[in-house]
Amino acid sequence: MAFPIPPWLNQYRASANSFLSQYEPLILLITPLFSLLIARILQSIFLVIHERGLKATIISFVMSAIKLVPGVKKYIDSEKQKIVDKLQGSSNRDGWRTELPKTGLGDNVLVQMRDEKQKDVTWQGKCSGTVYIGGNENEGHFSLINEACSMFAHTNPLHLSVFPSVVRFEAEVVAMTAAILGSKEKASGGQICGNMTSGGTESILLAVKSSRDYMKAKKGITKPEMIIPVSAHSAYDKAAQYFKIKLWRVPVDKEFRADVKAIKRYINNNTIMIVGSAPGFPHGIIDPIEELGDLASIYQICFHVDLCLGGFVLPFARKLGYPVPPFDFTVQGVTSISVDVHKYGLAPKGTSVVLYRNREIRKHQFVAVTEWTGGLYVSPTIAGSRAGGLIAGAWAAMISLGSEGYLENTKEIMEASKRIQKGIQDIPELFVIGRPDMSIIAFGSDVVDIFEVNDILSSKGWHLNALQRPNSVHICVTLQHVPVVQIFLKDLRDSVQTVKENPGPVNGGFAPIYGAAGKMPDRVMVQDLLVEFMDSSY
């Protein structure tokens, strides 16, 4: 049955055909395709502006255009290489092996290793963070964990039935760490679980991956976004790149804490998680964990707390009477926590723990493979095989110290930190960044170039961390620093005075590089510089 065509439609068709008949058929074919292309280009531009901001987008476009000028790109690459070479310092690969020796050295290899070890810098009491165990590396706690690692160096928890000892060690390290962070409290829900990892970065990676997949299962989010304060660890940037998550970095408040209101403004239907630190790596300041937890609860999203630095200090500092705000699983809304055992837990390097509020979230961390010809396979972390010796070393560290040991260590570390903080505040040319909550003290200056001060300190054997936005330096206080507080403060005062009397770059120092990198508007160029440096380092 045919339906009659309305007269107005016939008139419209005739008018359209009459209008289009004046154009070539090829033009009529190309025009809509060209329009779609333009629309796609405009959409891409708007997306870039939305993600990077108008200023950064314009700078990137201008720099890309400048590099097209003959000779400019070559000049820029040459200058970048000069900076990379300077960053490399005295690194010399002459004599490095590139193939196996024809005849093995046998036990004599240990002699060669001892010789190489002598070339390492003197780190005892001189490094920010880095080595957290106190005393000499050939005695005491050092000796204990070295023996524990050696005893289980051949083990691998991947083989559950072969090495039940390290499987138990891991389970107990996780359980003991969870107990320190509120798992025994009613507010935690009583289901805290987790796994050991190779370090804080892997713990954060796993927490982000698990949160992404959990929120996909729970809310159907397929274009995940994550919101973090600018002070949050760079491991979140790595996670965003690895797991294809849009990352929003939000400015901190005037106290250098996460700005809850600013974070709230970025939350949308694609948000999978927000992040807080206790404390943050740059300035040692604890974010408002309770307020962030409330925000996560209201919007039903995940909330990860980075306790990689604070996990084995804050619980004990609270017992000692220090004003420590809530930071663990007793805070509603917290869904995961990362804590390094190899920092203030005084375990061997390469040991961290990632914890989850319940098993429903943690299940999304695991990878199970059913179609491999090698058999059925399931792995809890990023690594398949893992070093059982490190797990054993972590267990030995925690069991040997006990709560009383950690309490005493925390007392010494916090007291040393407060003495250093006061000593810095007593230097007129310096100021402390924010109000440090723990054992990380960041300081800057409006009088002298703080990076030049850092260079002078480096010449005296100190190894501190250079920070940016604002330009500053921090020291992460460990047991190694307890006996050298006054030595550090004297060297710092002398370094400030030296720069004040003789301002300008130190020969062989990095102040000009750090200063230039901080002011460079094209952050892509800075990123390229870092990649070139890393590529030439290995």
Major β-sheet profile: 7 strands, mixed
Discrete helix count: 18
Mean pLDDT: 90
How would you describe the shape?
globular
Helix content: 40-55%
Rg from alpha-carbon coordinates: 28 Å
**How many strand segments?**
13
Class derived from helix and strand content: alpha/beta
Q: How are the strands of the biggest sheet laid out side by side?
A: 1-7-6-5-4-2-3
End-to-end separation in angstroms reads: 78 Å
Oligomer: single chain
The proportion of strand residues reads: 5-15%
Runs with pLDDT <50, length 5+?
Answer: none
Organism: Solanum tuberosum (Potato)
Protein name: sphinganine-1-phosphate aldolase
Pfam families: Pyridoxal_deC
Cofactor: pyridoxal 5'-phosphate
Question: Can you describe this structure in just a few lines?
Answer:
Helices cover 48% and strands 11% of the residues. The chain is an alpha/beta fold and 538 residues long. The strands form three sheets. The chain has a seven-stranded mixed β-sheet with strand order 1-7-6-5-4-2-3, with helices on both faces. A four-stranded antiparallel β-sheet has the order 10-11-13-12.
Describe what this molecule looks like in 3D:
Helix 8 crosses helix 9 and helix 15 packs across helix 16. Strands 1-7-6-5-4-2-3 form a seven-stranded mixed sheet, sandwiched between helices. It has a four-stranded antiparallel sheet with strand order 10-11-13-12. Strands 8-9 form a two-stranded antiparallel ribbon. By secondary structure, it is α/β, with parallel strands linked by helices. Helix content is 48%, strand content 11%. The longest helix is centred in the last third of the chain and has 38 residues. Its cofactor is pyridoxal 5'-phosphate. InterPro entries: GrpII_AminoAcid_Decarb (IPR050477), PyrdxlP-dep_de-COase (IPR002129), PyrdxlP-dep_Trfase (IPR015424), PyrdxlP-dep_Trfase_major (IPR015421), PyrdxlP-dep_Trfase_small (IPR015422). Keywords: Lyase, Pyridoxal phosphate.
